[in-house]
Amino acid sequence: MTTLEELKQKVEECKKCGLYKTRKKVVFGSGDEKSKIMFIGEAPGRNEDEQGEPFVGRAGQFLNQLLKEANLKREEIYITNILKCRPPNNRDPTEEEIKMCSPYLDKQLTIIRPKVIITLGNYSTKYILKKFGKTPESISRIHGEVYHVKNLLFDMKIIPSYHPAAALYNPNMKQVIINDFKKIKKEIGDDKR
Ligand code: URA
Ligand code: SF4
Predict the structure, then answer these.
(1) pLDDT tens-place string over residues 97-147
(2) 4-9+26-188 belongs to which homologous superfamily?
(3) Do residues 37 and 78 lie in contact, with contact meaning Cβ atoms separated by under 8 Å?
(4) Whose Cα sits closest to atom 7 in ligand 2?
(5) Average pLDDT, the chain
């Protein structure tokens, strides 16, 4: 079976969609690969593209604050995105890009086997809910809800959240997201590995 490190090396050479032409660095994902808790964002932004690490820019700073609310440390979770390369000017991911890149996320899921997935924003929420046979609805309706998945490979919870960047554009959103992360804390308990 492929290890996460082998997969990372493969993704760093990927040219399956057009984003390879404009990326500086592939952002594969980081954190504790033995963690039971996985966060899935959308795509790298400018800072992530430069550093090759997920959520290191302004949205990442707010995410760090949110993790504190949930009594989590960055090194206790695994964090990645649907797209591993930055879309130019941070435009939305296209369907084609998601189709090309999501098999890598699927592989990460089968290697890490999380017990809790927190999806950040509409794109990862839709992708993950659909993948696990749930009806994808708008994030404004389902943020903070807990979906249970039980099948041959997975026995876990999926908790959709707004994307942390949403609070940067709309300050009213901040408290809504903080409240969701308080809920996430309850759902996770002390069972992090
Ligand atoms: N936004 C994301 O969705 N992912 C990142 O890694 C950074 C910002
Ligand atoms: Fe490959 Fe994904 Fe990057 Fe596209 S976004 S080049 S599919 S790693």
Answers:
(1) 999 999 999 999 999 999 999 999 999 999 999 999 999 899 999 999 999
(2) Uracil-DNA glycosylase-like domain (3.40.470.10)
(3) yes
(4) 101
(5) 96
CA of 137 from ligand 1 middle (Å) equals 21
Which helix or strand (DSSP H or E) is residue 99 part of?
Answer: helix 95-112
pLDDT tens per residue, range 177-191:
999 999 999 999 877
Instruction: Indicate the domain borders of the chain.
Output: 4-9+26-188
> How far, in Å, is the centroid of ligand 1 from the Cα of 47?
9
Under 8 Å between Cβ of 7 and 80: no
Which atom of ligand 1 lies closest to the CA of 53? 6
- Beta-carbon contacts of 158 under 8 Å, excluding residues fewer than 6 positions away, are 116, 117, 119, 128, 129, 132, 134, 146, 147, 149
pLDDT value, residue 189? 81
Instruction: Please state the pTM of the whole predicted model.
Output: 0.97
Q: Which amino acid belongs to residue 10?
A: K
What is the average pLDDT across 164-174?
Answer: 93
Candidates 7, 10, 14, 91: which one to mutate for ligand 2, based on the most atoms within 8 Å of Cβ? 14
- How many Å apart are CA 176 and CA 192, to the nearest integer? 24
